[in-house]
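Researcher: Predict the fold of Xanthine dehydrogenase accessory protein XdhC.
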Amino acid sequence: MSDLHTPETWHAALHRLQRDGIPHVLATQVTSAGSTPREPGARMVITDDAIFDTLGGGTFEWQTITTARACLAEQRYGLSLEAFSLGGRSGQCCGGFVNILLEAFPGTTTHIAIFGAGHVGQEIVKLSAPLPWQLHWHDSRSDAFAEQYQQQPRLNFYPLQDAQHSVAALRADTHALVLTHNHDEDYSLITALIDRDDVASIGLIGSDSKWASFEGRLKREGYSAKQILRVRCPIGRIQATKLNNKTPYAIALTVVAELLWLTDAPSSQENRGLDSQALRTLMTDSPTTTS
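Model: C-alpha cells for Xanthine dehydrogenase accessory protein XdhC follow.
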C-alpha cells in the first residue's frame, strides 16, 4: 500500500479523523537527547493509507509509521511508548535518542442501520450525531434525505430498493432499526435481517397489533421461536414500557437510550494508559545513545 502524503496538518487531520470515526494513531515525540531531527512536542498522525505531518523523516520515522500501523492492524488501541536510538535501531547518523508516544484510536466500532427516514428516523439521526456511531440510513423514497443532514459526520445514505440486497450489504454486528413508511417494506426487512445470524440486534417500530400480525406471519412462514425472539418490537421498550408520550422525539429518545445499553461494552483492560514501570523509567532515567 502506497502512502498518501497530504499537506493537511496533524491537528486538522486529528480533528477530522476523530469526527468521522476513522482509525488512526497520533505519534508524539516526548523526549529528545543529543542530536535529533525534531524536538519534543513534534507530532504526526498515521492511518492505514495516509500520513499527516512529520517527525523529521528518515528510517526512524518509517519505523514509527510501521509500528503505528501494526497497532491498527492488530487492534492494539490505547497508549504505547517506543524508544529510538538514532544510529542503532534506526540506522541514522544523528546519534541522538527519542521516545515516541503512540496513541492508537479505534475509530467507530458501532454501526447502526436505520431503515426509514420518517419523523422518528430523523429524530434518531439528530440525537445520535454526538455519539461515536457510524449511521447507515436507508430509504426507498428519492427525496427522503433532507439537505440539513448532508454534513452530519459519520452519517451515510443509501437508496432502499430491495430489502434482501440492502440487508446483505450490512456489516456484521450491525444494530438494525426498521421504521419505514410501509408495513410490507418493514416485513421484508425483518425477514432479511432474521436470515442473517450475525446482525447484532433487530428493532422494529410498531404497535402491539402490528407485532402480533408480523409474529403470526413469521410463524406461518416457518421461522422458529428463537429467530422471532431476536426482534424487539416496539423499539425503545427497555426504557419506555409505560411511556405515554408518543411524539417522534420522545420515541427517538427511548430508542437511542436502548441502543446505548445494547452497544455499551466494558473495558477488558485492568490497567489503562502506559505501563507504570515504563513511565517511571522514562521520567527518571537518562537515555544512553548508541551508534
